[in-house]
Amino acid sequence: MKERKPFCKSPDGSIVYTTDDSFIYAEKDGVMMRLDMFAGHYYKLRPYNGVPILEVDGLRMQLVKDFRTPLDYSEEVVKGLHILATGDAVALDTCMGLGYTAIALAKKNGVKTVATCELSEAVITLAKWNPFSDMLFAKGSKIIVMEGSITERIKSFDSDMFSFVIHDPPRLSHAPELYSSDFYGELYRVCKKGAKIFHYVGSVGKKKGRRIDKEVEKRLFSAGFRAIRYVPRLQGMFTRK
């Protein structure tokens, strides 16, 4: 068994976290637990340069290539949306995960409210134990956490509701509905005119002659989005309504 070392404490100091570099452990009221679980899939928090990342079935859910931590990635994505410090924008983070992009959005002065959605109850449970996700559930937070499928939730949103959207779905093979023309049509409907969107699509390497980024670009354009540009460093594209 690997030796554990101090990792961090919860914001209120009630939980002490340690790590053996493979797992993160939380101790509260004398009870120690390892932050991983089985719920149809295997979910796990793992340390990466001092920040927890989420793994599902051994696959890393945050992009960290070329970034020191996943927090840096989220901040660069939000920076690319060019949010003005004035205003009271409502933003949408379609796939919460550990909530790092939702938190980065909420930290912007020009953002009034961030709605974020997460399908997996296991992910929400781990996020509640993750000290770096604390802002998601803090009293008085700008962030509204919704459980369930964003493909269903989005149908209940008002038209012209969001000024900024971050769409960071699982890979295409795991959630094809989040890359569909139907979903993009709903996304277009709920965005205000001039709304700015970031859509993670992954690397653009060819696989059996297929280019997912080109397919996504075509569907986004058909839905009405314009000024679509892919940013290799972020493995995603910015666009606007």
Describe what this molecule looks like in 3D.
By secondary structure, this protein is α/β, with parallel strands linked by helices. 23% of the residues lie in helices and 34% in strands. It has helices at residues 70-79, 100-106, 121-129, 134-137, 150-153, 181-190, 212-223, and strands spanning 5-9, 16-19, 24-28, 31-34, 36-38, 42-48, 51-56, 59-60, 89-93, 111-118, 143-147, 162-167, 191-200, 226-231, 236-240. The strands form 3 sheets. A 7-stranded mixed beta sheet has the order 11-10-9-12-13-15-14, sandwiched between helices. The protein is globular.
List keywords for this structure.
seven-stranded mixed beta sheet; 7 helices; alpha/beta; 34% strand; Rossmann fold; 241 residues; four-stranded antiparallel beta sheet
